Amino acid sequence: GGFSVAFDPLDGSSIVDTNFTVGTIFGVWPGDKLTGVTGGDQVAAAMGIYGPRTTFVVALKDCPGTHEFLLLDEGKWQHVKDTTTIGEGKMFSPGNLRATFDNPDYDKLVNYYVKEKYTLRYTGGMVPDVNQIIVKEKGIFTNVTSPTAKAKLRLLFEVAPLGFLIEKAGGHSSDGKQSVLDKVISQLDERTQVAYGSKNEIIRFEETLYGSSRLAASATVGATA
Predict the structure, then answer these.
(1) Does the predicted model carry a pTM greater than 0.90?
(2) Of 3.30.540.10, 3.30.70.1060, 3.50.50.60, 3.40.140.10, which CATH number belongs to 3-83?
(3) Side by side, which strands form the sheet with 77-83?
(4) Residues in domain Fructose-1-6-bisphosphatase class 1 C-terminal (predicted)?
């Protein structure tokens, strides 16, 4: 019985002094273990977003969609949005761009976004950059590794909870080969690369980095076409 909660209390600590939007990330698992489980085992996930507005986005295993609540001036929370579909749209948030120096496939993907005139929306804070995909119902967030730019994002505290929110909202997640919700969490501090976005954007991400996608039909898309 009971539940275990993993949380990142302040995502975006390096951009607090510049007054950018920051947030908090929560993942809730049944039982008393946070290793040997997957993101798909979560029963709930949430993030708090602290910017011009204070909002709280939550998803529950047995409840369709991802739900946004707004903190009102009088201290009450108002339910303002349900998201059940992440559609296609040219908006990208490319994290860990230093990896393009020695990861030619990531460089190819980023150049595709530029060539195709995607709108750049990147703050350096994972919570606001992922939250905009849910709010705008489109886009792609990437954080890719390379031989010299290692993975920084933690599977348990950041990647899996946000993956749960994105997939409950109708989007997809990937580490390049599989949904991040299928990755077994073997260590509390385990790190991984990740992408979140619409189906076609995740297909493009997987095909460009690894040559094929588990989500694709027969035709390729985007940077590999």
Answers:
(1) yes
(2) 3.30.540.10
(3) 3-11, 22-30, 44-50, 54-60, 66-71, 77-83
(4) 88-208
